[in-house]
Amino acid sequence: MKGRNRKLFTTQLAYNVRQALRNFPAIKVDKKRDRMYIVLNGEDPEAIMARCRKIFGIQNMSVALKVENDETAIKEQALNLLTETENVRTFKVSTKRSNKEFPIGSQEFNQVLGGYLLANTENITVDVHQPDLEITVDIRPEATYLTSKKIQGATGLPVGSSGKSLLLLSGGIDSPVAGYLAMKRGVQLEAIHFHSPPYTSERAKEKVLDLAEKLTFYGHSIKVHIVPFTALQQKIHREIPHGYSMTVMRRMMMRISEAVAKQEGILSLITGESLGQVASQTMESMHAINAVTNYPVIRPLVTMDKDEIIRISEDIDMYDISIRPFEDCCTVFVPKQPKTKPKLEKVEQFEVNVEYDQDIQDILSSVETVVVEAKNKQEEEMEDLL
Amino acid sequence: MIYLDNSATTKPNPQVLDSFTKASTQYFGNASSIHGIGMDAERLLRKSREQAASLLEVYPNEIIFTSGGTEGNNLAIKGIALEHQNRGKHIITSSVEHPSVIETCQGLEALGFEVTYLDVDQSGLIEIDSLKKEMREDTILVSVMHVNNEIGMIQPIKEIGEVVQNYPKAFFHVDHVQGYGKVALDIQECHIDLCTISGHKIHGLKGTGVLYVKHNVRLFSLAHGGGQERRIRSGTENVAGIVSLVKAMRLAKENQPKLDEKLTSLKNVLIEQLHSLDRVVINTPKINSAPHIVNFSVRGLKPEVVIHALEDFDIFISTKSACSSKSADESAVLIACGKDRDIAISGLRVSMSYETTEKEIEFFCQKIKEVIKKLSEVMG
């Protein structure tokens, strides 16, 4: 990653890390060019690492020991690191010396420190190719940082660094996973949900808000636009041949989503579609549905199997919410035999009969927008109570 | 007001009350409901359970929330007896237990259980040898309190636990109601299977409590229904009460070391001052006793009269325990410790809290002196 792009990413990442760690008031986040330091100031490193593992944009991380720029001090702490790590038979020292005032060169210091460690341990040898433990010594002007074990981060890009997208969030298993995967590539989300009271219940809406809340864990607060869809759905049910009603309903959802995206200055849509999963997700259906918008429609799950999707859903703790048994707007008015291969020309013909422009205008003027805050706020509240 | 009856009940800590009010208004949902409000309540309940567990250094699923000490003791004793009666029907407890233990055992005797009430020595302590003698193959439960509510002695829980440990069929229950927050107790180290704690004795609210039930211990439920609390205690969870309890537990545990220091020095002052008075006999043993309780008798003076005389100075103390004060005149605990009847019928208890000050204790000592002198003149 280069130049200004990198700066953008690291700035976003530093912001995200500060947000995610705001329950640890004593820490200080110190952003350097190619890495970031979290100065603990007494906070619990384990808890902080656990939280950081969920932050997209972190490749790997390790606990670093800050030592003064003094040969003896570095040696002692390095020895501690080595002896405290379990199952180490071989090690390697890699020194970087950006502080040229430090009297020993990096190559030489590798040998000095390696020799010291060998002399003070038993049954541990050096292996420069595949060591069990690599001890990195980063000698900087302000201090020396010692790190050892690397822990895999969540990878991906910092949320917010790839702009914003509007997620069509139904309450099922797929769409939250789609949102999560988009976030992994740095997308900040807003969500749109189609609500058809009284056919769909208040609980279905809460379920969607709970899912959105789970998603906030990986990024920022999420605006959820709740669209009153009942009247238009009834109209479609009345006016459109049943085999095509589902396709038309989806097209309406796309139109409304695009309009909301436009209002919010969002440039793309995300759906949880997976090829061949249901009638609306055949190639023909996607073609017919997609035809109403020229906004990019991101479909992170399009080639995934259902069990892969379920596995991710479980991993990110959404599955139990997703399977709560409430109807959503896609499952009411489901025709007995929806067309699996709808023809675009026919769909367009049928739609001529529905004068939907005014309906969409009405809907847009009565969208309810809820800002779902990161859970941390409530967590904090609960912790205060206890 | 000088409130020195903290073993009967304590004044709720304002922070605890605040948590209760907030939890009642913001998390009023039924924790078993599947909607969001229910889920929030459930999440709060889960957090509370985790915190209670970490305070007691046990697992979250070992925490059963109850309505307090009496329920906890009943559930532990009856729950074990009814569930495991085919292993044996013998129960061991002591003669100085709280009525919620003694009477529960008596109730079980009526159902055909056999109960041994261990004698205690002059300090009120169980002798390990006599426990060993009474342990049998059909003993299914040993129930002993940690800190005595009337005179404050501390039972040798760890040693008792080690004895019970040798009898795989027997469970060990500890009534920790007076001990929590005053005298530390290590549930694991003492091999405890069941442990009762009450909220209102630790500046929480009445109607709240915990029964620790070790994960592999089965109890017969005394409240069947919705299956809450590991199916051991059904009933809609009192989330706000539980939150307040766990907060009180945290505050009590955090303050314990400081409190111990303070109360021990106040207790020493009290004992020294009281000891110098005519007619006064100190019933609380010098060693192995909790820092917050001082029990003493004023020979020849009716304790009620002393209490009411002190009340005129806005000082509140008690006769034996509030739970026993409605029954006969003499204190069963003092009798069990081998005290003469005239001492056993004239027991008075001072029990302190974190709010008790040195000044209050000085004032109390001065007034009790005056009261005893004055009453002695009248009564001759």
UniProtKB/TrEMBL annotation, chain A:
Its EC number is 2.8.1.4. GO terms for biological process: thiamine biosynthetic process; thiamine diphosphate biosynthetic process; thiazole biosynthetic process; tRNA 4-thiouridine biosynthesis. The keyword DNA damage does not apply. Keywords: ATP-binding, Cytoplasm, Nucleotide-binding, RNA-binding, Thiamine biosynthesis, Transferase, tRNA-binding. Residues 46-150 form the THUMP domain. It catalyses: [ThiI sulfur-carrier protein]-S-sulfanyl-L-cysteine + a uridine in tRNA + 2 reduced [2Fe-2S]-[ferredoxin] + ATP + H(+) = [ThiI sulfur-carrier protein]-L-cysteine + a 4-thiouridine in tRNA + 2 oxidized [2Fe-2S]-[ferredoxin] + AMP + diphosphate; [ThiS sulfur-carrier protein]-C-terminal Gly-Gly-AMP + S-sulfanyl-L-cysteinyl-[cysteine desulfurase] + AH2 = [ThiS sulfur-carrier protein]-C-terminal-Gly-aminoethanethioate + L-cysteinyl-[cysteine desulfurase] + A + AMP + 2 H(+). It comes from the Bacteria. Pathway: Cofactor biosynthesis; thiamine diphosphate biosynthesis. GO terms for molecular function: ATP binding; CCA tRNA nucleotidyltransferase activity; tRNA binding; tRNA-uracil-4 sulfurtransferase activity. It holds the Pfam family THUMP. SMART domains: THUMP. It is found in: Cytoplasm. Coiled coil: none annotated. Catalyzes the ATP-dependent transfer of a sulfur to tRNA to produce 4-thiouridine in position 8 of tRNAs, which functions as a near-UV photosensor. Also catalyzes the transfer of sulfur to the sulfur carrier protein ThiS, forming ThiS-thiocarboxylate. This is a step in the synthesis of thiazole, in the thiamine biosynthesis pathway. The sulfur is donated as persulfide by IscS. NCBIfam families: tRNA uracil 4-sulfurtransferase ThiI. This is Probable tRNA sulfurtransferase. The gene is thiI.
Automatic annotation (TrEMBL), chain B:
It holds the Pfam family Aminotran_5. Residues 2-363 form the Aminotransferase class V domain. Its cofactor is pyridoxal 5'-phosphate. InterPro entries: Aminotrans_V_dom, Cysteine_dSase, PyrdxlP-dep_Trfase, PyrdxlP-dep_Trfase_major, PyrdxlP-dep_Trfase_small. Keywords: Iron, Iron-sulfur, Metal-binding, Pyridoxal phosphate. Gene3D superfamilies: 1.10.260.50, Aspartate Aminotransferase, domain 1, Type I PLP-dependent aspartate aminotransferase-like (Major domain). GO terms for molecular function: cysteine desulfurase activity; iron-sulfur cluster binding; metal ion binding. NCBIfam families: PRK02948.1. Belongs to the class-V pyridoxal-phosphate-dependent aminotransferase family. NifS/IscS subfamily. This is Cysteine desulfurase. The lineage of its organism: Bacteria, Bacillati, Bacillota, Bacilli, Bacillales.
